[in-house]
């Protein structure tokens, strides 16, 4: 993996204004961390289908996890820009294995916003330290987009919930020590009967299924999870009973922004690498980039990448001010994921047969990017969300 590219982007649009010097200083820390603790091991993790537990603890020690968590619990109390930098460095190094953003920016906020003070004190410091790894389980074998159709139930029994059902495609599912499970507490009430309940990884009746084989994200564990009469104390409920759907709606824009930020940096980095490759590779006695068709493809890509960078940074700035709307986050995710897939396909083509080889980054980036159009709400669901505002 090549880590020689300049940090922070900005080659396409001039200096970026979304970050401060303090953000960029943090980028140095994150960058050094990735060079030392992630890049050298990533190919092995791809073969293993999972990253090491150790890298999580190392990330905790280095202050890479949960930058937004309040200092009271061991975080840095920082803004989302610090999280975005971690996401960008993952994209820049093409090391998609460590599920840090899912943990820090998707799972932890639910717990920090909605758990009881006792549970926060118990879990959050360990989550910042990388000793507790988080996951969130919405999707089931029979449903993904249509959350109200979920079949997993949580029945109240005295001071406990009893959870039954199964989930699938759960990121961090093998490693997770704490899973936010979305379950029906009132099965007759559709989306108004969903609750979010935390299940510890060692709860009796909780079982992990296969670490699923995927076409990309090979170092990222993605699992089936099974719940058979799993009893958890009612104190593990997040927020209020039956309000889970509204909590999901509130937090999903940040999840979508994570995907958009990753797309913007991924496009920029892979464009740069493709330009380098096509300058070096010769065909019919000239560099591949010298064929007008290829140069025009790359020129189009550069123009689009610049446009998306400006839009993604705009959304980032809005989110840092607490002003990112649901539909704008959906637009950023939709445009970023679709553009990334289209451009990566062109970039791969420009690499010829080498593009298809796993040892070339573009091939892995291409297969890793495919999921961007599906998870966090598919492109079609993003269009639905935007369409409702017309
Ligand atoms: C690698 C990976 C990691 C994941 N991580 C997690 C995780 O950590 N936690 C979690 O809960 N889930 C996770 N998921 C699940 C993911 O969020 C779902 O796969 C996704 O939401 C789509 O749901 P589905 O697969 O059931 O597709 P379906 O909902 O069955 O959709 C099938 C097709 O129909 C389309 N469609 C559905 N509804 C509409 C509509 N109203 N209009 C038009 N088209 C529609 C979809 O866009 C899609 O093209 C992950 C998935 C993968 C592959």
UniProtKB/TrEMBL annotation:
<feature type="domain" description="Acyl-CoA dehydrogenase/oxidase C-terminal">
    <location>
        <begin position="242"/>
        <end position="389"/>
    </location>
</feature>
<dbReference type="InterPro" id="IPR046373">
    <property type="entry name" value="Acyl-CoA_Oxase/DH_mid-dom_sf"/>
</dbReference>
<dbReference type="InterPro" id="IPR036250">
    <property type="entry name" value="AcylCo_DH-like_C"/>
</dbReference>
<dbReference type="InterPro" id="IPR009075">
    <property type="entry name" value="AcylCo_DH/oxidase_C"/>
</dbReference>
<dbReference type="InterPro" id="IPR037069">
    <property type="entry name" value="AcylCoA_DH/ox_N_sf"/>
</dbReference>
<dbReference type="InterPro" id="IPR013786">
    <property type="entry name" value="AcylCoA_DH/ox_N"/>
</dbReference>
<keyword id="KW-0285">Flavoprotein</keyword>
<keyword id="KW-0274">FAD</keyword>
<feature type="domain" description="Acyl-CoA dehydrogenase/oxidase N-terminal">
    <location>
        <begin position="20"/>
        <end position="131"/>
    </location>
</feature>
<dbReference type="Pfam" id="PF00441">
    <property type="entry name" value="Acyl-CoA_dh_1"/>
</dbReference>
<dbReference type="InterPro" id="IPR050741">
    <property type="entry name" value="Acyl-CoA_dehydrogenase"/>
</dbReference>
<keyword id="KW-0560">Oxidoreductase</keyword>
<comment type="function">
    <text>Catalyzes the dehydrogenation at the alpha-beta position of ACP-bound acyl chains. This results in the introduction of a double bond in the lipidic chain, which is further transferred to the epsilon-amino group of lysine residue in the mycobactin core by MbtK.</text>
</comment>
<dbReference type="Pfam" id="PF02771">
    <property type="entry name" value="Acyl-CoA_dh_N"/>
</dbReference>
<protein>
    <recommendedName>
        <fullName>Acyl-[acyl-carrier-protein] dehydrogenase MbtN</fullName>
    </recommendedName>
</protein>
<dbReference type="InterPro" id="IPR006091">
    <property type="entry name" value="Acyl-CoA_Oxase/DH_mid-dom"/>
</dbReference>
<dbReference type="InterPro" id="IPR006089">
    <property type="entry name" value="Acyl-CoA_DH_CS"/>
</dbReference>
<feature type="domain" description="Acyl-CoA oxidase/dehydrogenase middle">
    <location>
        <begin position="135"/>
        <end position="230"/>
    </location>
</feature>
<dbReference type="InterPro" id="IPR009100">
    <property type="entry name" value="AcylCoA_DH/oxidase_NM_dom_sf"/>
</dbReference>
<dbReference type="Pfam" id="PF02770">
    <property type="entry name" value="Acyl-CoA_dh_M"/>
</dbReference>
<comment type="similarity">
    <text>Belongs to the acyl-CoA dehydrogenase family.</text>
</comment>
<comment type="pathway">
    <text>Siderophore biosynthesis; mycobactin biosynthesis.</text>
</comment>
């Amino acid at each position: 993996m090549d880590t020689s590219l300049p940090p922070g982007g900005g080659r396409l649009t001039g200096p970026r204004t979304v970050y401060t010097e303090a953000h960029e200083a943090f980028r140095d820390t994150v960058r050094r961390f990735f060079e030392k603790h992630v890049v050298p091991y990533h190919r092995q993790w791809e073969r293993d289908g999972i990253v090491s537990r150790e890298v999580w603890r190392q990330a905790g020690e280095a202050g890479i996890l949960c930058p937004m968590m309040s200092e009271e619990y061991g975080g840095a109390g920082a803004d989302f820009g610090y999280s975005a930098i971690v996401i960008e460095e993952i994209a820049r190094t093409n090391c998609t294995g460590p599920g840090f953003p899912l943990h820090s920016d998707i799972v932890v906020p639910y717990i920090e916003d909605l758990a009881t003070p006792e549970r926060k004190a118990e879990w959050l410091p360990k989550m910042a330290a990388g000793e507790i790894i988080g996951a969130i389980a919405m999707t089931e074998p029979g449903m993904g987009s249509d959350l109200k159709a979920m079949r997993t139930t949580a029945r109240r029994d005295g001071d406990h919930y009893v959870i039954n059902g199964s989930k699938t495609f759960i990121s961090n599912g093998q490693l997770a020590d704490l899973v936010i499970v979305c379950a029906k507490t009132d099965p007759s009430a559709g989306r108004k009967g969903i609750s979010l309940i935390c299940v510890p990884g060692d709860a009796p009746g909780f079982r992990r299924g296969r670490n699923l084989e995927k076409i990309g994200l090979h170092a990222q564990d993605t699992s089936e999870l099974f719940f058979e009469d799993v009893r958890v104390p009612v104190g593990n409920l997040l927020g209020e009973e039956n309000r889970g759907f509204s909590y999901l709606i509130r937090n999903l824009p940040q999840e979508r922004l994570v995907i958009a930020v990753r797309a913007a940096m991924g496009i920029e980095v892979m464009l740069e690498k493709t330009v380098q490759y096509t300058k070096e590779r010769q065909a019919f006695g000239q560099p591949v980039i010298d064929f007008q068709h290829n140069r025009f493809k790359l020129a189009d890509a550069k123009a689009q990448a610049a446009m998306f960078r400006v839009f993604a940074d705009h959304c980032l700035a809005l989110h840092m001010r607490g002003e990112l709307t649901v539909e704008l986050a959906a637009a950023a995710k939709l445009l970023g994921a679709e553009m990334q897939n289209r451009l990566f396909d062109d970039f791969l083509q420009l690499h010829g047969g080498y593009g298809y080889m796993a040892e070339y980054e573009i091939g892995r980036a291409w297969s890793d990017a495919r999921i961007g159009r599906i998870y966090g709400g598919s492109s079609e669901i993003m269009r639905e969300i935007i369409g409702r505002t017309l």
